[in-house]
Amino acid sequence: MSFRIRWPTQFGLITQGFRERPEFYGKFGLPGHEGIDFQAPDGSEIYAVADGTISNVRLDGDLDKLNKPYGNQVRVRHDGGYESIYAHLMQATVSVGQPVKAGQLIGLADNTGNSFGAHLHFTVKKQGASQAGETDFPWDIIDPTPYLEPFSGGAPTQPEPPAQPTIQVQVTSPQVGHLNIRSAPYASAGLVTQAPDGAMLGALEAEDVARRIVGQQDQWLWVKTSDGQVGYAAAWYLRLPEGAAPPAAAAISVVVDSQGTLLKVRSGAGTQYAILAQVPDGTALKALESENVVRSKVGQQGQWLQVQTLQGITGYSAAWYVRLEAAPAVAFALPVEEAEPVEERKLVQADDLKRILGIGPKTEAALQAIGVAVYEQLASFKPKQLEALLKETGIRARNVSTWPKQARLLAEGRRKALESFQKKLK
Known about the structure:
By secondary structure, the protein is of the alpha+beta class.
């Protein structure tokens, strides 16, 4: 048995084994518990169980416990078609495409998603296992127990830094005047040193991973200071120095697969960033990240891909709306009925949810309190989910079932269509 699993926590206790409680999990179409639950108190470290590459990071939190029960999670792809999943995390300390070693820190434990106490839920998949009859669980889920090595405790594995940094980054912390470099990628880890504002640091991650992390909130970058000290820096206090060469484009294209709607290309990796372009379904885009990263992101909910349009516009698109197939020739001009000017937004600025009929200041504040601040987020909700959220806050509102459609029209810049729809509602 070549695939072996190192213990993923600092604690030698399993709180729920594989296949347990079939009477409970049967209502979800499962023969029993689909993984192993390990003791992992709130904020404790979670480690990769084997060498591999980060295939996915999903930060779903507690937004939809029923449909996204794993909450914040990290997935690692291993040799032999295996993939390990680490669920209910407080935060991820790695990024998609990043290589990791067995025992390397990848996140901190918590209680996010459908969970009733801090712990680590751990699942293993093997590609093709369900179809081959190797498991009676769906989705290629297999029993991790035969692969699990005995608990040995000990310190996490520290990856060996490369001989030379892959790229230079610059500290940008003018208010404080310095940036803390820590022993691990989270705020409470031990302090290694401090780098002054404007200092140059060497990134120790792969260049495409480092470029993607720099400037991103809640991301950490493995760095080396000018005097040779190694640690982790908060990536949202870093930037690429002026004049830095652009990333090399991957020799791979992706195709917009947005079910007939326009795909937005944004200035940053998230719906809070300004729209730079809108691209029709079926259009080819040039991917600007390494091929392995592109392949790991395409089709994955919550992932963002750096792309370039045929018009030369560079930005980020939602990876769950692109695919890796050859594209037909599609004109880039917007269809006539979609050619209204799109409202640009300032970076990291929330949309005005009060433009949606039925949402007032109180309701907008309640939605923003649960993390819904931009039109695309609201458009992704189902009416029943919205009604349940409002019920929890004690708010009654009109036209709730139409909010996702109204939000989608706003997100697409279709103001005339929205006005017409709202008149019918009135």
